[in-house]
Automatic annotation (TrEMBL):
The lineage of its organism: Bacteria, Pseudomonadati, Verrucomicrobiota, Opitutia, Opitutales. This is Multifunctional fusion protein. The keyword Protease does not apply. 3-phosphoshikimate binds at residues 22-23, 27, 164-166, 192, 310, 337. It catalyses: 3-phosphoshikimate + phosphoenolpyruvate = 5-O-(1-carboxyvinyl)-3-phosphoshikimate + phosphate; dCMP + ATP = dCDP + ADP; CMP + ATP = CDP + ADP.
Amino acid sequence: MDYKIEPFTKPACAAIQAPGSKSITNRALLLAAMAGQKIKIFNPLVSRDSQIMAQCLKNLGFEIEEGENFISVSGSPKKSAKLFVGNAGTAARFLTAFVCAIKDGEFEFDSDEEMYKRPMRGLIEALEHLGAEFTFKKESFSFPFSVKTKGFSGGEISLDATQSSQILSAILMSQTLASSETSITLKGGTVSKPFVEMTVKMMRQFGFEVECPSNGKYIVKNSKTCKISSYTVETDATAASYPIALAAATSGAVLVKNFPREGLQGDVGFAQVMQKAGLVKCRRVGNDLLALKSEPSAEACEFDFNDISDTFLTFAAIAPLFGRTTKITGIAHTRKQESDRVEAMAREISKFAKKVEFDEDSITIFPYEKSELAQKISSPVKIETYKDHRIAMSHGVAGCADIFGGGKAWIEIRDPQCSSKTWPDFFKILEQSRKDSMKFKTVAIDGGAAVGKSSVSKECAKTLNYMHVDTGSHYRTIAYILLDKGIAPSLGEDAVSQALKGVEISTLIFGNSARMSVGGKEIEDSLIRTDKVNQNVSLFAAMPQVREFLKGYQRSMEGVAKEKNFAGLVMEGRDIGSVIFPNAEIKIFLDADEETRRKRRANEGISDSISKRDALDKNRKTAPLVRPEGSVLIDTSNMSKEEVIAKTLALIAEA
Ligand SMILES: Nc1ncnc2c1ncn2[C@@H]1O[C@H](COP(=O)(O)OP(=O)(O)OP(=O)(O)O)[C@@H](O)[C@H]1O
Ligand SMILES: Nc1ccn([C@H]2C[C@H](O)[C@@H](COP(=O)(O)O)O2)c(=O)n1
C-alpha cells in the first residue's frame, strides 16, 4: 500500500512520544536472559525486531510474560532450538553469540533474505576461535546456518568489528557467561561507537563487570550476579529525530516527550547537530525536549554522522527543503544495514533535489532554490522504502513540509508498514500531530506588572504564527485618550462613560500583533507608556464601564485571528483566563517576586509603580487580577526569558 503524506498547513504545534528504544529493548531482553533471575522490563519497544528477540528467547526455553507496557524474562536456555531472526541485526548478532555460551548445544538459525547479506563474518570468526562449529547452508559466514556450541572459557579474542558495532556488543555481552575472564582486542576499530558504549553501560547497569582499559581493548569478567530485578527502557533517541526534524520541516514547535538525557544513547546528539545546522533550537523542558523552528543560513553545511549514523537519513531527507547544499560524511557502514542506505537515500532524495552525489562514505545533496522546489515537482514523488523503516519515516517527515502552500500532498511512501520495525504507529502519530497542529487554540496569559507577559506572549505567537493581543495596551490606550480629553479618573464613572461614547475602536495588524486603534489611527507606544498613563491606567481599568467597553472587543479577537488565518490566539492581561476567555485551551498565570520585577523594569530604564498598580488591579471589584481557575502557575523569578517561553510553548504544544 502507498501512503500520501498530508503536509502541515500550519506550523507544527504538537507533543509526540516516541517509542521505547529498540537498541535498549533488545539489549535488555538479552541481558535479562543472562541474569539468572526474573527481570521485568518496563517501556519496552513493541515492534517486529523486539518481538523477534522475545520469540527467539521463548524458543530457547525462557519464560516471557508480556503485559501493559512491560515484558518479563525468566528461566534458563535449552540445549537446542530453531531461531528465526528476521532482519533484526541485534537479534541476529546477540543471539548467535549468546547460544555459543551454552555447553553442548546445537542451534539452527535462519533469517529474512536481507539478513543473508548483512555482515556476520567478524563475529563468526571470533566464535569459531572460541570453539563453536558453524555449518553454513548458503554462503560462508552468513545466514542461514547451524551451530554446535561448547560454552566459553574466557581467554583472548582478536575481533574484527569494523563492519558492525553489534559484533562487538554481542561478544561483550556473551562473555559475561564465560567461565573466566575474557580479553577482547579490536582489529581495526569499530563503527557507531556510541552503541558499544550503550552496551557497556547497560551491562554495568545489570551488574555485569566490563572494563575498557584503552581504546580498542575490553575485559569482561565472569561475574554472573545481576544487581537488578527491573529495568526501564528509555525513549528511542533515533526515533526522536523524526519529531525534532518535523519542527524544522514545518517551521513549528514540537515537544518530544521524555527525551532521554545524555548517557546511553548516542543519537541524543542529533538534537545538537540540528541546532548547529541552524535548523531548530532545542530547549529542555523537564523530562521533555522542545524543538523550535529556526532560521538556517544559506551557506552549505557538512556534518560527520559516524557516531549518530541512524539519524543521517532524517537529516538527509529534509535537506532539500532548505535551499542549501548539505554534505553528510562517515556513513559507509550504513551501506550494509537494512538497505544500502547511502545509495537508497541518494536515489530517493534525487526525486526532489536538483542533484545528489554520493561516494562510499558520504552523500551530498544539492537542493533546488527554495522558491523553485514547488515548480520542479509536478506530480507526487513516490518514495521507494526498500523495507527500510528509516527511509520511510525520514521521507514521511519531509513530506510534512507544505511546499505548495495549500496542503497539496507531494510525497507518497511505498510500503509505510515497514516503519513497524521500530515505530509501528509512526504514520498515525504524524497524521494526529498534523490534526493537533490545525486546532485553533486560545492561550490566556495573565499576571501582574512586569512578570514577563509581553515578552513571552509575543515570542510564542511568533513561533506558532498565532495572533498576539496585549490587552494592557487597550487599557493604556483608553487611559491616554481619556487623559487627552481632559478626563481624569477623579471625575468619576459618569464622566468616563460619557467620554467613551465618542471613542471608536478598531484593529490594525502588524506582523503577529493585533493593535487596537482609535478612529482608525494607531496610538503609539511612546504615548501609552508614559508616567502619566502608568499612574492613571489602573484607576480607569477598575471602572466597570471601561471594562464593559473593552470586553466585547477583546472577545472578538478570536474571530479576527481566525479570519486573518492565524493558527491561534495569545492574549495577555489581567483577566483573560478569568473573564474574557474562561474556556481558553491554555491558561497561564505568570508571577515573579517584586524585587525581580522592579529590577527588570529598571533595566529598561523605566520607573513603574508596579506594586501600586498591582494592588489596585488585585483589589478592584470588577474583573480583579486573580490566578484563574485551571491555570498553570509559572514563577519566573529565577527563570530566564527563554526558559519561560519554552515552558509556555511546551504547554501549548501539549494542550
Ligand atoms: N524571565 C525573565 N528574566 C529576565 N527578564 C525578563 C524575564 N521576563 C521578562 N523580562 C524582562 O522584564 C521586563 C518586563 O517584561 P514584560 O514587558 O514582558 O512584562 P509584562 O508582564 O508584559 O509587563 P506589563 O504588564 O507591565 O506590560 C522586560 O524588560 C523583559 O525583557
Ligand atoms: N486585561 C487587563 C489588562 C490590563 N489591565 C490594566 C491593569 C494594568 O495596570 C494596566 C496596564 O497593563 P500592562 O500594560 O501593565 O499590562 O491595564 C487590566 O485591568 N486588565
